[in-house]
Amino acid sequence: MRIIRASEKHTHGNRSFQVNILYPGANLGNVDTGYLTVGRIDHASFRPPGLVPMHPHQDDEIFSYIRSGEMVHMDSTGHQEHLDSCYMMLMNAGTGISHEERAVSDVEMLQIFMRPSQNSLPPQVQFSEFENIYSEDVWRLVAGYDAKAPLKLRVQTNIYDIHLLKKSSVTFPDHKIQNTYLLYCFSGSFKVGDHTITKGDSVIVDENHTLEALSDSDLVLFEIRKDAVYSETGMFSGNRFH
């Protein structure tokens, strides 16, 4: 088990937009700033009149995971959508997509940069309306390569979330030996083994574990095939050490 604390992340921004960036591989001392298919995870706070102006992506899979607030998304494929904690988006940048985001109300979110299985795929933007903001004490598949995933990733990784109520416990969904896991604590705190994990911390582990909530907690789990094929050259998701 390897733990990356929130204090180890890179912080940037201003009053309207602040982001804490996790480069998981860099924190582990690897030669790749990402961890297998996960390029980087941005934990962002975004408030009016905040605007992230139009900018490009190439060979990135970008999942906008909003837990509170609302923002307006516009992109070069012609979409203009209001995103919130039930209406989420995945941009498969491929050969190229540009987008901008404007805060309507105070937003707290993850901008997750995944790595595609190959470069120069066709660009597309996906949206999904979730029935509930939270999935209490049950893992929910939100994005991935699984056929049941509401938002489709073009790499062998599934992303789950859960709202784990205080004193509840859970293990990983359908654990398989060919997978490794990156677990991100969006809010709250929980115990795994002898370790206490709090907001902004990450855990990387191969074995299945029991997670015990010390407070109501929002967790995001990356189920990654160890042998997944992926590109390290995405514009944002790629290896920063290149």
UniProtKB/TrEMBL annotation:
GO MF annotation: an example: metal ion binding
Residues noted as binding Fe cation in the record, renumbered to the chain: H55, H57, H99, E101
Domain Quercetin 2,3-dioxygenase C-terminal cupin residues, every copy: 145-224
Iron-sulfur is among the record's keywords: no
Domain Pirin N-terminal: 52-112
One Pfam family this sequence matches: Pirin_C_2
Entry annotated with the keyword Cytoplasm: no
SUPFAM superfamilies: RmlC-like cupins
Cofactor binding note of this UniProt entry: Binds 1 Fe cation per subunit.
Entry keyword set: Iron, Metal-binding
Cofactor(s) named in the record: Fe cation
Family: Belongs to the pirin family.
Protein name, entry field: Pirin family protein
